[in-house]
UniProtKB/TrEMBL annotation:
<dbReference type="Pfam" id="PF02668">
    <property type="entry name" value="TauD"/>
</dbReference>
<keyword id="KW-0223">Dioxygenase</keyword>
<keyword id="KW-0408">Iron</keyword>
<keyword id="KW-0045">Antibiotic biosynthesis</keyword>
<dbReference type="InterPro" id="IPR003819">
    <property type="entry name" value="TauD/TfdA-like"/>
</dbReference>
<feature type="domain" description="TauD/TfdA-like">
    <location>
        <begin position="29"/>
        <end position="317"/>
    </location>
</feature>
<protein>
    <submittedName>
        <fullName>TauD/TfdA family dioxygenase</fullName>
    </submittedName>
</protein>
<dbReference type="InterPro" id="IPR042098">
    <property type="entry name" value="TauD-like_sf"/>
</dbReference>
<keyword id="KW-0560">Oxidoreductase</keyword>
<dbReference type="GO" id="GO:0017000">
    <property type="term" value="P:antibiotic biosynthetic process"/>
</dbReference>
<dbReference type="GO" id="GO:0051213">
    <property type="term" value="F:dioxygenase activity"/>
</dbReference>
<dbReference type="InterPro" id="IPR050411">
    <property type="entry name" value="AlphaKG_dependent_hydroxylases"/>
</dbReference>
């Protein structure tokens, strides 16, 4: 175990099927320790795409915020276009997205459908679940290399299309996703971010946006599979839940769905293939209370396993990156 006063990338423990881990054995202030070893931790993330720091002793939101801020160039402000509500626990620090604990949250790159997204994701485990609940990670370059070449080429040419329906009954509401209920403000945001929108007679909002599925990492130039095509697809929803949603809202009124960039439907086989490639390359480690995890959001996708018992993992998004800095393969458009 490395000394609490000295950390080197050489101290990282690498094990098959597990994320890179750095045990600390810390006795002292986690924020001071993180500030002293910021460069070493960032070097580990740059080399491996993620690192789980064990033994840091994070115990509350204020302590997590102090650690998060010491490790980033800045935390992003209030989230926009969220797919599920979060609760604010400190400035720039949130609870995990509200998602049924008995269902997996599939692999995704956070906010990969927006024009500005976090370059670094930060997670702090305050309460570990009794069973399950790991935050798995998967390398986006390895996933890209493993996908069928023809499928990748199509997504490179066409990008991917995300459709959403915002209402007050399921998923994030308009107010939660855009920070306001004012229609003029929502429309200004959509126009500024290349999002097509249409208000429905029942007051709900439907949107469409086309984004690049493959990008280049701005620091390394490596091509990465960077999107939420599988996670936000109707075929990733539990079948009985999907049937209920289609029955209540109609196929076009699902809270979210994804398509090929030209608008053609994605078959269930395509989504299953994407999720299978992710799963084969997923590294996971059960959370322990006090753990910290850093994830390069462009290079590395993350997920959340189903769990039992209480689970409190705080999240922050740092080092914002513009999509335009990542060599997108298509022009950003609303449709």
């Amino acid at each position: 175990m490395p000394s609490p006063s000295a950390v080197s990338p050489r101290d990282v423990v690498l094990r098959p099927g597990r994320p890179p881990m750095l045990p600390t054995g810390l006795c002292g202030d986690p924020a001071n320790w993180a500030a002293r070893h910021r460069d070493a931790l960032r070097a580990v993330v740059a080399e491996h795409g993620a690192v789980l720091v064990r033994g840091l002793g994070l115990a509350d939101a204020a302590g997590a915020e102090a650690v998060f801020r010491s490790l980033t160039t800045g935390l992003m402000g209030e989230e926009r276009e969220s797919f599920a509500p979060r609760q604010n626990r400190a400035e720039g620090v949130y609870t995990s997205s509200a998602w049924p604990q008995n269902q997996p949250m599939c692999m995704h790159h956070e906010l990969s459908y927006t024009l500005e997204f976090p370059g670094l994701m930060l997670f702090a485990c305050l309460t570990a679940p009794a069973e399950g609940g790991a935050t798995g990670v998967a390398d986006g370059q390895a996933v890209l290399d493993a996908l069928p070449r023809r499928l990748v080429k199509r997504f490179e040419r066409q990008g991917w299309l995300l459709t959403r329906t915002y209402n007050d009954e399921i998923g994030a509401s308009v107010a939660e996703a855009f920070g306001t209920e004012d229609r003029d403000a929502v429309e200004r945001y959509c126009r500024a971010n290349s999002i097509a929108f249409a208000w429905q007679p029942d007051g709900s909002l439907r949107t469409r946006q086309r984004r690049s599925a493959v990008v280049r990492h701005p620091a390394t130039g490596r091509r990465c599979w960077f999107n939420q095509i599988a996670f936000l697809s109707e075929w990733t929803i539990e079948p009985e839940v999907r049937e209920y949603l289609v029955d209540v809202y109609g196929a076009e009124g699902l809270p979210f769905n994804t398509f090929f960039g030209n608008g053609e439907p994605l078959g269930a086989d395509v989504v299953q293939r994407l999720n299978a490639v992710y799963e084969a390359r997923t590294a996971r480690e059960p959370w322990q209370a006090g753990d910290l995890m850093l994830v390069d959001n462009i290079r590395t996708a993350h997920c959340r396993d189903p769990f039992e018992g209480p689970r409190e993992v705080l999240v922050a998004m740092g080092d914002p990156v513009r999509l335009s800095a990542c060599s997108p393969t298509i022009e950003v458009t609303a449709t």
